[in-house]
């Protein structure tokens, strides 16, 4: 929803959807991005620009070929920063049964597999009965326990937990399930950056540093990690730095850092 809303503000801007970036090349004052269009098996298309802002996750960036290659410290940071695992299980219900218990927002915490259950404080326009519940939000080892389970298996596991909290009625009220396993997402390859000890000192600055006309942004390049707001702020910061990029005769241009 957020990307779609932002796209509506880009009047007159060339936008290419559902394409996978395969290579980014720098030569002189030009950067060439080679990408594979949706459903294309082999042939690549390309687009040229004065500068490029890379906002893919650190792990996904590893699978982009750069010419010339990125410096060793940058590649090391992209390869070794730790990413957390996270899984969200959303269940839909024919009614907002939790409101019978006076629950309007907030969360339940359990030591069972679902771990954290988040209740909505809002409804859907035109439908006051449908219930959509973030029935499980897990991360780290709790999330990895779910990776091998099918959506239907997860649905059963989470409903068992909900039944212990809200009663057996949840089984008959449930109408659907939606599961997001960020560790299996081919575009992120993990939920969010979660630095281990000393990674802040070793990698934080190099992750954000530009490589000539190639700039980098994303929640892994700024603090606090994991938040969409952080990713957006890092992109704004990078865009500002792109406009401040020094010419050969002006090497003292101030730049926004971490």
Note down, in words, how this protein is organized.
The protein has 258 residues and is of the alpha+beta class. The chain has two domains: 2-82 and 193-243, FAD/NAD(P)-binding domain (3-Layer(bba) Sandwich), CATH 3.50.50; 86-184, Polyamine Oxidase, Chain A, domain 2 (Alpha-Beta Complex). It has eight helices and 13 strands. It has helices at 2-7, 58-61, 72-80, 140-144, 151-166, 169-173, 199-208, 228-243, and strands spanning 20-27, 30-36, 45-49, 52-54, 65-67, 83-84, 86-93, 107-109, 116-118, 131-139, 174-181, 192-193, 214-216. A four-stranded mixed β-sheet has the order 3-2-1-5, with no helix packed on it. It has a three-stranded antiparallel β-sheet with strand order 10-7-11. The protein has a two-stranded parallel ribbon with strand order 4-13. Strand 1 (20-27) and strand 2 form a beta hairpin.
The profile of the biggest β sheet is: 4 strands, mixed
Alpha-beta classification: alpha+beta
User: What is the CATH C level class of the largest domain, in words?
Assistant: Alpha Beta
Radius of gyration: 22 Å
The tally of domains stands at: 2
Secondary-structure element series: HEEEEHEHEEEEEHHHEEHEH
Which term fits the overall shape? elongated
């Amino acid at each position: 929803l957020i990307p779609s809303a932002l796209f509506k503000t880009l009047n007159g801007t060339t936008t290419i959807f559902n394409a996978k970036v395969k290579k980014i090349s720098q030569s002189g004052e030009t950067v060439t991005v080679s990408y594979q269009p949706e459903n294309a098996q082999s042939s690549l298309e390309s687009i040229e620009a004065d500068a490029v802002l890379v906002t893919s996750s650190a792990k996904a960036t590893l699978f982009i070929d750069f010419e010339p290659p990125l410096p060793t410290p940058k590649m090391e940071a992209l390869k070794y920063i730790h990413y957390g695992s996270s899984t969200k299980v959303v269940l839909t219900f024919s009614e907002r049964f939790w409101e019978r218990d006076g629950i309007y927002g907030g969360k339940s915490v359990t030591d069972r597999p679902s771990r954290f259950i988040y209740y909505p404080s809002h409804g859907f326009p035109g439908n006051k009965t449908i219930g959509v519940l973030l029935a499980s939000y897990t991360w780290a080892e709790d999330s990895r326990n779910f990776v091998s389970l099918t959506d239907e298996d997860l649905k059963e596991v989470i409903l068992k937990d909900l039944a212990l909290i809200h009663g057996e009625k949840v089984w008959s009220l449930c109408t659907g399930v939606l599961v997001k396993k960020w560790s299996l997402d081919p575009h992120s390859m993990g939920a969010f950056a979660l630095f281990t000890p000393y990674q802040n000192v070793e990698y934080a600055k190099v992750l954000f540093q530009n490589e000539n006309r190639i700039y980098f942004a994303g929640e892994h390049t700024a603090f606090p990690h994991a938040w969409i707001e952080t990713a957006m702020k890092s992109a704004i910061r990078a865009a500002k730095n792109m406009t401040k990029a020094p010419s050969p005769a002006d090497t003292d241009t101030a730049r926004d850092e971490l």
